[in-house]
Write a structure and sequence with these properties.
Length: 192
């Protein structure tokens, strides 16, 4: 049961608005994407191996068999070209979705930072009004240290998120590029 924000203490509010579940979701999505792409790669390798086994003649082929193999090779080349294009479109959609998720994470982090600053301001206001006296030097020092620590923490969180997102995007882009290069090579190899 989620309590009213006014009834929650500072640690409970921090935990309630934590980005940890979002980070875990991103990590599991990246793992799922990697496993899916590895499965696709394994399936392609298996198909290529089966095609090579099927096309290696044990006896000299007859002219009609040679013609049939040429048609099969041409059909396989067209099939691989189509699959390569389909895979490229699929990876483009996946990269777009990953970019949207990263934009959402950045927005959520900005909202969290704004909430934390507002909560800290309310806390300081309550402390000032609760004592009935002006804020003394020690309290001002403590408050400025809290604000400084919060700014540093938020900056560290933002930098870590941006670095992770940049790394994820670079890794996904490189994986797609490598996969396309391999597919192009295999498509050309099947045509020979």
């Amino acid at each position: 049961m989620v309590k009213n924000e006014a009834e929650m203490n500072w640690d409970a509010l921090r935990e309630h608005y934590s980005l940890q579940p979002l980070h875990l979701k991103h990590a599991s999505e990246c793992t799922a994407l990697q496993l899916k792409q590895e499965g696709e790669w394994a399936a392609i390798q298996q198909k290529h191996a089966l095609l090579e086994e099927a096309t290696e003649p044990s006896t000299p082929p007859s002219p009609s068999a040679t013609t049939r193999h040429a048609f099969e090779a041409a059909a396989n080349a067209k099939l691989w070209k189509f699959k390569t294009k389909a895979l490229a479109q699929q990876h483009a959609h996946e990269l777009t979705a990953l970019g949207e998720q990263q934009a959402f994470a950045t927005l959520a982090l900005a909202e969290k930072e704004a909430f934390e600053m507002a909560a800290l301001a309310k806390k300081h206001t309550r402390e000032r009004s609760g004592s009935g006296a002006p804020v003394n030097g020690a309290r001002q020092l403590q408050q400025s240290q809290e604000v400084e620590a919060l700014h540093k923490q938020q900056l560290d969180e933002r930098l870590a998120l941006e670095l992770r997102q940049k790394t994820e995007l670079e890794a996904a882009t490189e994986a797609v590029w490598i996969e396309h290069a391999v597919e192009d090579f295999l498509c050309k190899d099947a045509a020979m």
